[in-house]
Amino acid sequence: MQTFSFAGSERKFFGACMVIGVISLLAIYLTDDPLHSRFWGNILQNGSFFLGIAFISLFLYAAKIIAYSGWHVQFKRILESYSLFLGVGLIFMIVLGLGTYFGFHSLYEWNQPHLVEDDPIIQGKSPFLNPGWYLFATIVFGGSWFFVARQLRALSLKEDSEGDISFKIHKKMKIWAAIMLPLGGFTSAAAIWLWLMSLDAHWYSTLYGWYTGASWLVAAVGFLILTIIYLKSRGYYPKVTEEHLHDLGKYLFAFSVFWAYLWFSQYMLIWYANIGEATIYFHHRHENYPTLFYINLVVNFVLPFLILLTNDSKRRKGTLIFVSIAVIIGHWIDFFLMVKPGVHYTTNKILMTTGMEEAAAELTRFTMPGLLDVGVFIGFIGLFGYFVFNSLTKAALVPSKDPYLEESLHHHVA
Fold first, then answer.
1. Rounded to whole angstroms, how far apart are CA atoms 250 and 246?
2. How do residues 66-123 score in pLDDT, each as one tens digit?
3. Cα angle at 135 between 131 and 140, to 5 degrees?
4. How far apart are CA 180 and CA 384, in angstroms?
5. CA 79, CA 54: separation in Å to the nearest integer?
6. In whole angstroms, how far apart are CA 14 and each of 5, 42, 63, 150?
7. Per-residue pLDDT tens digits for 371-404
8. Would the pLDDT of 365 be above 70?
9. What is the chain's Cα-based Rg?
10. 7 phi and psi, to 5 degrees?
């Protein structure tokens, strides 16, 4: 039975990353505009990105349990550890929820009474877009995900300690997984609308929840591939073969294509149907963030599509490492494009309407992530990595008594 040992060098590496993140956040706060929009925007971007990776890992884990999947069982502890990060990621989102409720930040136009008093569109959305519902939904929805993650983790450990020849424990896991799929499907969409889509309060998209979820999933699979390959390099997971990596490579390829389909569908509809309120969303990003607009599409679709198109490429560790790193960075950029333009628009509007025209004129758009933004991203990677590796030390790395372990040990792709 393999037990993971969290090496001192790894702790120092992740600790150094977290220090970089804290220093970057402090530097941003001290050099920010009067509303500290860049500071709060970074918290929202990175907090929602990593919380989403934890959520989608739980959702994927639940889907595999329901589907009687067995090939993933050897490394399911990694998915469990990712999902437990919900507890950490939720803290950042609750801070943002409290900030929305008590006015600590000004990220959302709909939370500024003087901006919406003559705006019938936002007023019409006020039953949903209000600080009380934002905070309530963040706590209840995120808390329910974390609760299910804890239940599945507890049952998984119980299965490992007691054995599960009669499948009694696994049947309980199926019940919680069955609860998670509709719960996560409906509540995650509402959370995404609140946290991210409402930054551009006049715009809406019926595909936005799917689009964001696909972005989370590709990034999560990228992290999963990197984690497995790294642990194998340390001598762990000797029976996780290139067949398993091949299937994860197929996930990376397929959901990159799915993400691109959703990207194109949202973009196409504003032209095909001439939806004005949707047009402004893409027009703002295309005109003011043109480089990132196209980098986003190239890195997150063209690159993984062309590289992973052949079967052999999905079996090469070097190729998978390169593509995984690329799409993780690419989808972080995707979240930058989701968050930054809306935050900049609202900040500029508040400054202009509150007699701070000079501050508005000096407001820097940051159409490309700056070094400090990258530093914050590194800090969150350090926090996520430290948490996951520490969680892996608390249970056997391979669940020896999972009833589907043999399927994973003998997994072969024709």
1. 6
2. 999 999 999 999 999 999 999 999 999 999 999 999 999 999 999 999 999 889 999 9
3. 145
4. 23
5. 8
6. 15, 19, 30, 24
7. 999 999 999 999 999 999 999 999 999 998 888 9
8. no
9. 22
10. -65, 150
Q: Are 209 and 192 in contact (CB under 8 A)?
A: yes
* Pairwise pLDDT comparison (25 vs 33), residue with the higher score: 25
- Range of 2-6, 54-58, 262-266, 284-288 with top mean pLDDT: 54-58
Query: What is the reported pLDDT for 271?
Result: 67
Count of CA atoms in the C-beta half-sphere (13 A) of 166: 4
Predicted confidence band at 58 (pLDDT cuts at 50, 70, 90)? very high
- Element of type H or E holding 356: none
Q: List, as one string, the DSSP characters of 83-100.
A: HHTHHHHHHHHHHHHHHH
Nearest-angstrom CA–CA distance, 118 and 124: 11
The backbone region for 81, taken as left when phi is positive above 0, alpha when psi lies in -120 to 50, beta otherwise, is alpha
Cα angle 127, 131, 134 (rounded to 5 degrees) comes to 80
Alpha-carbon distance of 403 to 69, in angstroms, equals 11
Joined together, the tokens standing for residue 80 give: 């469990």
Residue 12 CA to residue 389 CA, distance in Å, equals 12
Query: How confident is the model over 255-304, as pLDDT tens digits?
Result: 999 999 999 988 887 766 677 667 788 888 988 999 999 999 999 999 99
Spatial distance between the Cα atoms of 265 and 259, rounded to a whole number of angstroms: 10
The residue type found at 150 is R
How many angstroms separate the CA atoms of 301 and 128, rounded?
A: 33
With cut-offs at 50, 70 and 90, classify the pLDDT of residue 1.
low
Place of tokens 């509150």: 354
Handedness of CA 355, 361, 367, 372 (dihedral sign): negative
Rounded Cα distance between 319 and 313, Å, is: 6
Structure tokens at 184: 């996560």
pLDDT, residue 414, reads 64
Contacts 24+ apart (CB under 8 A), 181-187: 181/59, 181/62, 181/63, 181/66, 183/144, 183/145, 183/148, 184/55, 184/58, 184/59, 184/62, 184/145, 185/59, 187/137, 187/141, 187/144, 187/145
- Taking Cα atoms as reference points, which of 311, 318, 89 lies closest to residue 216? 89
